[in-house]
Write a structure and sequence with these properties.
CATH architecture of the largest domain: Alpha-Beta Complex
Shape: elongated
CATH superfamily of the largest domain: Creatinase/methionine aminopeptidase superfamily
Strand order of the largest sheet: 4-3-2-1-5-6
Order of helices and strands: HEHEEHEHEHEHHHEEEEEHHEEEEEEEE
Radius of gyration: 23 Å
Strand content: 15-25%
Number of helices: 10
CATH topology of the largest domain: Creatine Amidinohydrolase
Largest sheet: 6 strands, mixed
Number of domains: 2
Helix content: 25-40%
Number of strands: 19
CATH class of the largest domain: Alpha Beta
Amino acid sequence: MTNLEKYRSVLSDDVQGLLLTSRYSRMYAAQFDISEGVALVGRTGARYFTDSRYIESAQKNLHGFEVVEIGLSNPTAQAINAALADFGISRLGFEDGYLTVAELRQFEKTVNASFVTVQEEINAFRVSKDAWEIERMEKAQEITDRAFAEVCGRIREGMSEKELAAELIYCLYKNGGEGLSFDPIVVSGPNSSMPHGVPGDRKLQRGDFITMDFGVLYQGYCSDMTRTVALGYASDEMRKVYDIVLRAQLAGIAATKAGVTGAQIDAAARKVIRDAGYGAFFGHSYGHSLGLEIHEDPNCSPRNCEPMPLGAVVSAEPGIYLPGKFGVRIEDVVVFTQDGCRNLTKSPKDLRII
């Protein structure tokens, strides 16, 4: 079943067509990324509306869609209304997770259909990844691994977090990245206690922990990894905390298997940190799904009591964050299998001192 056919499977008398406005759903349906446009999926046809900047690429690469150019002579609403009439659609499913209130109101004014929310139904297809999707994510992870190995050779005492972030971004693109999954997190010393700290002007110092959280896009799919390294040396406390986080991650990975709940996997890792006396310093969830977006569902969190599905791709990223001192996070990305999981991240995890 193609992705377009998957989307058609949610159609009914109540939802006769789908209006895909998010880049992610359009990319999933077409299996190709056109950064601008709107797609309409009906039982008897599918049309992709985009302007003159993207029309040639869309015509060459979008299979299963009739490509229609929009612009001053053929406004978006006019083109959509023509398709609605051709496909016999009067009730249109829309993406309430991405469409703003203002955008929805404009569509309601100009489009000849009533609107029904379908976000949950169409997102459900992305919970488990197909083999071709995992191949793209595995390639993205390979790029990320190579970039990490290279950037470690560029770390120098006295360079700023911003400078290191720039070097990291360069390495990600140099090794084949087609975009960034998110803005990299590069924090050092006491700043590393902020899980999502922003790279600043602080200079790297001997004895710092440096946490780098980063990922790339490859053919539309994300990678994600975090490594914490020490510059020059690591104190006994730093080594102790690093070891606890690594053991927690390994415990979570050992518990990872299709059919196990996200809460159970989170608990396996969290128990290691709590038993070591650092439970108060691990405040976020153990892991999140990723794919076309860097954060997708389902998650390995204390709130997810549903069984994790076969083929889910999820991060494994426990951490300990000691305010004013330092933080440690180690993150891999794994694929859920029937018997356990397969780790896509190959970078070593033993404490690295640069």
